[in-house]
Amino acid sequence: MLSDKHGRTISYLRLAVTDRCNLRCYYCMPECGIDFVQRKELLSYEEMLRLAQIHADMGVNKVRITGGEPFVRKDLLPFINRLSAIPGIDEVHVTTNGTVSAGMVSQFKEAGISGINLSLDTLRKDRFFEITRRDQFDEVMRTFHQLLECGIPVKINMVLMNGVNDDELVDMALLARDYPVDVRFLEEMPFNGNGAGNKHLLSARMIEERLHQAFEGITKLHSPHHETATRFSVPEFKGNVGIIPSFTRTICGGCNRIRVTPTGQLKTCLYDNGVLDLKALLRGTADDSFIAQTIRSAVDKKPKDGFEAERQIQESSNRESMATIGG
Ligand code: SAM
Ligand code: SF4
Q1: DSSP alpha helices (H): ranges in the chain?
Q2: What is the pTM of this model?
Q3: Ligand 1, atom 7: nearest CA belongs to which residue?
Q4: CA-nearest residue, atom 4 of ligand 2
Q5: Is 5 domain-assigned?
Q6: Which residues form the domain of 221?
């Protein structure tokens, strides 16, 4: 088992397969002037598969593919197919903006995808353009409906921002009434690639208050210790609604996850700066057991929470883009 000095077991790996994206969500990336990493600096699929096997041997049983936009990387589905076949990996999920995957959805199950987190911050086409700086709302909705038709479990992630899209809280939540999906509201984090901070933060507490005002009979559900979302059921709803306190970080005590960035940096906390250069290890002479041992010692030192991780880094990392972290 992979565990840390605070007694948390790590069973969930988030693998960012690219830093590139076809959208430019303003809370994630600047509109232009982005230095995407060169291809040779990205972990290859073979390197990622080796890493996944090493992690699986230490008890990691769930992998999430993220990015950047994972589907802009070529041959993603054959990679996921091989990943999901690794003994010990029980679930492979993908977080996507849904803009380029519509044509592939029918192949998802066969590839071994257990569920999709679809990022959608608005149901208004004009606002979608304002937030993402691209006109691809219709493609996302097409992906959404195809996912439902194919029976793939869907969670909608909405970054809920004060004065930007918070007037759509109820309309977005109603997607969980009309469809069997979970709709989760995320706090804005300061990883936007330009150091501007999370100016439109709406705290989890405020979001919860608004949900209570909007939906009579809304009830908090019991969730597993490692669950990041506080989940609620609402009478007559097919799915649930949830809140992810990604900035106020009240969930760190149950954290069971680690991250690998597109360039192979191990992050034991979303808010750290990378604690281990896995790419150097993978491309050097280290064998799997040495790499596993090195990962174990890095994970052992996982910060107690995101605030401790932030204190430990020398310079504020909030100039970083979420696309280089993987969300
Ligand atoms: N491109 C894919 C997508 O958008 O779903 C996957 C990568 S994206 C970085 C992963 C998640 O992080 C998305 O749900 C996105 O909304 C969220 N995200 C990005 N920047 C964020 C920020 N500054 N604060 C909160 N969530 C953010
Ligand atoms: Fe791209 Fe996802 Fe970042 Fe939006 S949130 S710019 S879709 S990586």
Answers
A1: 45-57, 76-84, 108-111, 125-132, 137-149, 169-173, 175-178, 204-214, 278-283, 288-300, 306-312
A2: 0.96
A3: 67
A4: 25
A5: no
A6: 12-325
